[in-house]
Amino acid sequence: MQGVSWVILSAICFMLIGCEPQEPSQSQEDVPASEQTTPEQKHGEEDKQADGQQTEEAEKQEETEVEPPDAVLQKFDTDEAVLQLKNALNAIGYDLEATEEFDEGLTWAITDFQIQSEDLLASGFYDEATRDALLLYFEEGESMEPGEGLAWPPEEAEKTEAGTEVVSNPYDELALVNKSFALPDDYIPEDLIVPDVPFPFTEDLPQKYMRENAAHALEELFEGAEEAGLEMFAQSGYRSYDRQDDIFAANASQHGEDHANTYSARPGESEHQTGLAMDVTSAEVNLELVEAFGETEEGQWLAENAPEYGFIIRFPEGKEDITEYQYEPWHLRYVGEKTAKYITEQGITLEEYYEEQVE
Ligand SMILES: [Zn+2]
């Protein structure tokens, strides 16, 4: 059944699209999704070259090779399974560079697929749920167009009014957002929920919210802290672009733009808009967000244990030149367990991590 539908699909696409050969020198990442060669086209070329020996058996073999890998993968992984995943995505219409690197192109494709698959959280990570959805897609071939969920990154990055580069994949749970990379002004995470942790206020404010994966990870972190006999409070999570705009404007009119940029973020440049950050505090510092929190038992427990739950202290002491923020022992950023542990063990920042991985 699967084989037959694949052959029919390939044949139909081949007939519809024809087979313009792809420019060999063109780098795939620079090609917008709409202009990419589809795998069907490639099959078309192969068909042309083969001298009539293209049998059903060969098609079948190709199909087993493109099975989505049984693995958990994320950006910057280098693995055979990454190539297998790219082959699987290419077989359903993507056109990813066939390498073993989990690059931005693959992060985009996974995110795009996740957005178009209703039940999935758009994280950019290849997890079990994404694999199941891919397998189902292979079986049932529902309608999905590369780029329809998340547009392929433009060749030249967009810029904010302040001249900051706009990130093309705000859904990516590893997204780097800082004074050099801003979120789009219309980006609102779609999976915001209130984590079941103590807050020092009872109103249902936007700052209680976090993206779903991060919220559940925060719940586990708070459980861990409680088991260690500590009491912490979540103070401030999600913050919209507009709210950040108001905060920055108020700071700037009171103290000037330079001052505002040192102590707060321009709209789009705040990690709180990602829904992946939460400011945490304790009674010992009167529930304030102050440097002294780092000296408290809670602050020290966080610095040591947050990575186990997928969080990093995003603005560490001594890294102010790199992060362009003062030391903030209270500001947690979710990046997933693997990356959080690595970053913390290496004593680096998210900026340095990117520099190291991207080279
Ligand atoms: Zn913060």
From TrEMBL:
GO terms for molecular function: carboxypeptidase activity. Residues 208-336 form the D-alanyl-D-alanine carboxypeptidase-like core domain. It comes from the Bacteria. Residues 79-134 form the Peptidoglycan binding-like domain. Residues 23-39 have a biased composition (Polar residues). InterPro entries: DD-CPase-like, Peptidoglycan-bd-like, PGBD-like_sf, PGBDSf, VanY-like_core_dom, VanY/YodJ_core_dom, Zn_M74/Hedgehog-like. It holds the Pfam family VanY. Residues 40-50 have a biased composition (Basic and acidic residues). Residues 22-73, 252-274 are annotated as: Disordered. Keywords: Carboxypeptidase, Hydrolase, Protease. This is D-alanyl-D-alanine carboxypeptidase family protein. It comes from Oceanobacillus jeddahense.
